Amino acid sequence: MQPFFLLAALVLSMIGLPPAVAGDSSTGGPQLLPPQGPVAQGEVARILVRGVPAAGTVAGSWQGEPVGFFPLANGEWGALLGIDLRLSPGTYPLEVRLQPKGQTPVLWKEPVQVVAKDYGVEHLQLPERMVTLDAKTLKRVKQEEARFSAVWEQRSPECYWREPFLRPLPGTLLSTFGRNRVINGEERSPHTGLDLRAAVGEPVLASNSGRIALVGDFFFHGRAVVIDHGFGLYTMYFHLSEVKVKKGERVERGAVIGLAGATGRASGPHLHWGVRLAGARVDPLALLKATGGET
Ligand SMILES: [Zn+2]
Predict the structure, then answer these.
(1) What spacing in Å lies between the alpha carbon of 223 and ligand 1's midpoint?
(2) Ligand 1 centroid to 262 CA: how many Å?
(3) pLDDT in tens, 79-104
(4) What is the pLDDT of residue 22?
(5) pLDDT at 21
(6) Domain final residue pick, 62, 97, 115
(7) Residues 173 and 49 in one domain
(8) In terms of domains, do 230 and 153 share one?
(9) Is 110 in the same domain as 125?
(10) Which residues of the chain have pLDDT under 70?
C-alpha cells in the first residue's frame, strides 16, 4: 500500500464517525473536518478537507501562522494543527481556503476550542553553575536560542513525511512534556519536550523523513540535531554524545542521526525529544498519536 493511502486510511480511522463537517455536504461539495471537540494545550489535532478537485489546492491559517495541507488520496487533503503549551484557553478561528483551479475559492472559518491541561510540576536539583549563568555564558545562551528561533521561523514549502512519526529510541519516559520546572527551588521555563531513558552511545533515529535544519553543540541542549519535516514541523534531539548527520542533509524516517549521551545540561544520559509545529510547542506523544504512530 502506498504510504499516502495508508495515511489517508489512518486519518479517517482516527477521526472516527460520524464526523462534524463544515461545508455543503448535501450537494457532495467540499467539506472541512475540523478538530473533533476541544483541543488541549500542547496537543496536535488532525484536520481534513474532502472533495478537493484535481488541480485544486488547500491552505489554512491558525494563530497567524500558515497551516500546511498535503494531498492524501481520493481528493482528500490533511494537515496538522499545533496548540502551543501556553496558548490561553479560549475559542480561536481556524481558517481554511480551498482554491479550485480557475473557480471561486471555498472559505471556511471554524471555531476551535482550546482547553487548559495540567502537565504537573517537576523539581530538579542541578549544579548551580548550570542554573545561574555568568555574563559570558548568558550571552552564549542568547545567541544559541536565536539560532533556534531562526529555524522555527522557516517554513519549507513541501511536506517531507508521509508515514506515522516514530519514537527515536525505545527507552521509557523519564520526564513527560509540559511540566512546570522548579530548579533548585526556583520556577523556570516549562519542559517543552520529553525525556527518554537512553544509554550513552545508543542510536537515535529520525522520527520521520526530513531535512537536517540545525546541528550544533549548545550550552543547555548539548550536541543537538533539529529535523525539518516541512510546513513548519520540526523535531529536535538533544544531549547527544555524537551527531551522525550534517546540516542540509536529507534523512529518511528511522535513519540513525546520532548517538544518545549526556552533553549540555543533563543530570544523566537521556534523549530529550521535542517538537515544534508552526512555532507551537507541542507534546511529541501527541504528534505520534495524531499521525497514527505508536506511543
Ligand atoms: Zn528534556
Answers:
(1) 13
(2) 11
(3) 999 999 999 999 999 999 999 988 89
(4) 59
(5) 54
(6) 115
(7) no
(8) yes
(9) no
(10) 1-27
